[in-house]
Structure formats: structure tokens, C-alpha cells
Write a structure and sequence with these properties.
The structure is a homodimer of 246-residue chains. By secondary structure, chain A is of the alpha/beta class. Helix content of chain A is 47%, strand content 13%.
């Protein structure tokens, strides 16, 4: 079956506190993931604390698939990752979140069904469950303080998923109104130069050319909108008026 | 002054709940950031709830610099980013976390002192404070559910900082023990082929060559350790023993 809105399934294995399940749902939906599966939640299901915490992402909990065991939760998936902080005594490929989500995207594009498993709070994943995974995802945390909680792990993977899946301009400048055109910058430049000339700013004489060049360069290197240019004209006109009032 | 362990300074502006300040400290230290400044925390300072939440990252709170206002907190910085979810009516460069942390790294390498500002919970940053920033960082969240909390924002920026600053292999395979050498794979292959030949597995005759090729390929495409190879030999030997017992 072709997937609409293709994405990895998030599998929470034996989560303990409802609040953490709710926080994980929020973290998923923050980055557009909405397929959750839950294996044997400690406090049963549904869980009111999960619902309260998930506010706004409650739909994910309503639609979450429950399983009694890990094998049941991932039975229809062709590739499964286990997220874990500590290396284990298991030979297994280990990916950074970034490399893992690149891999997920490629697999999903090829029609694979992919799941990312997260272990219970504190204890983390058991080796039995890790052995079911095709690969491990390890977040490159500070080795002196590697304590990420469940929702934080989900958040980081969700972030990487969206970073991979949704192309975003890496930087842009949001202009309020139009950018000024070169002729407007040129006129601004002239306005200031003329007034500053009158005011005796370009002194001593042998430095004047360089001072004018620097002033001109200052305007052109600033990304100015039309409104900025008008304001700068206004500043100078006001100084002249103030001077003329004596 | 050259910085030891160069990094951006994290500035929390008018944070409200102590728990969130503590959680932000944890998120920073998870990714190796430990320079925090706090502007006018609502509930005063020090804050016991912050200390309780920060467990393990309490040193950041002890060493945090307090300021009465934003200008005071960033006075010694040459480049300042404001993190904000919503676009504002201010003309300003907008970076993704990734692009921002690349920029931060370049600036720090050039000797600049850089700060990243985070606004209060709920309200987010005020325009007065955003106007003090040289650029904006915007996390590419799901537009239908953009609600990141303070510590989550700090976590994502910290993650990107570390991803930029600390080179990590994007993927590797952790082998427990040594990888098998080709000669060991070859012997394993032969062992299986001989026994399966005895057992009458390669049938019908005209398909035998292809079946052998596929079996051989199966072993060579699996990344096997020496221990794996020994175990696979053991499996086959045991099957033979079992057969011989009748």
C-alpha cells in the first residue's frame, strides 16, 4: 500500500509515565510525525496523564496502535532502528540521527516501511529488543552528561526527520516591505554627503575622499528597505531643521 | 581574550518558571554548552526549583551571570541571535538552527563572542529584544503545531552546535570482537556447501550452481565477526550430529 504522508513509525517500548508518552506525542507532532505505536505501557491504556500532557497532539494517542510485545509492534516493518545512548554487546550498524534520517528517507522512497524504537525511561532498551533492530541510532551527546529523556530523544529524531524531509532555506532575510533599489541608496548617499559637506564633516581635506568612500560603502553594505531609506532621509532632514532653528 | 572551549553564550530573557531554567541548563550541558546568562528571572535568583530540575547540570546555574536587562546581558558580544517561532515586523536575517550554528562556529573561530537569546515561556521574545539581535534563528517546526518549550529550543540549538562542532562518524558498525577475515568466510561457505551437498539440498541438478552461488553470496554480504562464524559452524555441526544420532 503506498503511504500517504510517508514517515517513519515511532514505537515506544514499555513506557512508564503517561506524561512522557504525551510529551513524546507532542514532540512527534512538532515535526509532523503522527504514527505512534506503544508496546505494553506500564500504567495501562488509555492513560489520562498522557492525554493531558499531549494537549494539541492528542490525536496521535487516539490513533496509536497498542501491542503486547515488541515483535508485534514491528511485524509489518522492513527496517527498524533502535535508539540507545549506551553501546551494547551487540554487533550492529550505528547511525547518527542525521545519517539515520537520510537512510529512513531513502528507504521510505523505495517503498519500505520503517520504524524507530525508543526504550522505557531510565532503563533504556533491553538487549532483546535491540537485537530485533536492523540498526542503532545514537545521539552524539556530551559523554559527561548523556541524560536525554524519552521526549527529548523523540524530539531530536523528529527534528532530523523534518530537516531531511522538508527542504528549508538555510537562511533568508525577511524584509518588511520592499528592498530599496540602488538608485535610492545612491540618492541617500548623496543626501548625506551634501549635508555633511555643508556641516564641515569631511576634514581634513586630504582625508575627505576616503571619508566619503567609507560613508558611501556604509550605506551600500547595509541591507536597506525603502522604509529604512525614508527614515534615514528623515533623520538628516530633521538635523538640518534643528540646526536651522538655531 | 582567547576562549577556552569556545562556544556561544546562552541568554535566557525573563524566564518564568525555575523548572524551565533548570531544564534549559540540562539541555545545554547535554550538548556541552555551559555558559548561561539570565535576564531578570521572574521568581528571583537563586531559584531552588531550577536547582532541583538541573540535577547534574547545576554548575551552569551556579556560574550563570545575572543581568537586569537584555542590553546588559549581551553588552560584550559582537553577534547576537534571537530564537523565535513567529516572524515579526522587523527586517532581519533568518537562519535555520543548522545554518545559524555553522555561522556561530565561523564567527567564534574568527574570535567573535556570540550569544543566542531565548525569550520567556509562552510570550516569546519581545520586539524590543529582537531588535537588539543581529539575526533570528527559527526552528522549522510543523506549522500546524509549532509549540516548542524553552528547554526544547535550547536542546535543538545545543544539538546543532555539537553536530557542527564535534565531528562524528555518520555511521559505523560496532563489532564485538574482531571481524572475520575473507578466508574464514570462505571456509564457512565451504563447510555449508559440503554438508548441504551431502544432505541433498542442491536439487534439481540444473539449479545447483545457482543455489550454491546464492548461498555463498549470502555469507559474504553479511558483516560477520569471528564469533558469528564460529557460531554458524557450530549450528551446522550440531545438525550433522543430530542427524547422525538418527
Amino acid at each position: 500500500m503506498p503511504q500517504s504522508n510517508p514517515q517513519p513509525t515511532i514505537v515506544l517500548i514499555r513506557p512508564q509515565m503517561g506524561e512522557n508518552i504525551g510529551a513524546a506525542a507532542r514532540a512527534m507532532w512538532n515535526f509532523g510525525l503522527d504514527r505512534m505505536r506503544i508496546v505494553a505501557p506500564r500504567d495501562g491504556w488509555p492513560n489520562q496523564k498522557a492525554v493531558a500532557m499531549a494537549s494539541g497532539a492528542g490525536r496521535l494517542l487516539d490513533e496509536a496502535q497498542l501491542s503486547d510485545d515488541t515483535a508485534g509492534a514491528i511485524s509489518d516493518c522492513s527496517f527498524v532502528y533502535a535508539t540507545t545512548a549506551r553501546p551494547r554487546d551487540l554487533t550492529k550498524p550505528v547511525f547518527t540521527p542525521e545519517a539515520a534520517m537520510k537512510d529512513v528517507r531513502a528507504r521510505i522512497a523505495a517503498g519500505e516501511k520503517v520504524a524507530v524504537m525508543f526504550g522505557p525511561e531510565r532503563a533504556g532498551m533491553e538487549n532483546d529488543d535491540i537485537a530485533r533492530a536492523n540498526a542503532i541510532i545514537s545521539v552524539p551527546v556530551n559523554p559527561d552528561f548523556p541524560s536525554l529523556n524519552l521526549a527529548q530523544c523523540v524530539l531530536l529524531l523528529g527534528y532530523e526527520w523534518r530537516r531531511e524531509a522538508v527542504p528549508t532555506e538555510s537562511s533568508r532575510v525577511d524584509a518588511v516591505g520592499d528592498w530599496a533599489e540602488q538608485i535610492e541608496i545612491e540618492k541617500l548617499s548623496q543626501h548625506y554627503e551634501e549635508r555633511m559637506e555643508e556641516a564641515g564633516f569631511f576634514y581634513p581635506e586630504h582625508k575627505a575622499a576616503n571619508m566619503k568612500l567609507n560613508l558611501r560603502n556604509l550605506w551600500s553594505r547595509m541591507p536597506l528597505t525603502r522604509a529604512d531609506v525614508q527614515m534615514l532621509h528623515g533623520v538628516m532632514r530633521q538635523m538640518v531643521r534643528w540646526k536651522e532653528r538655531g
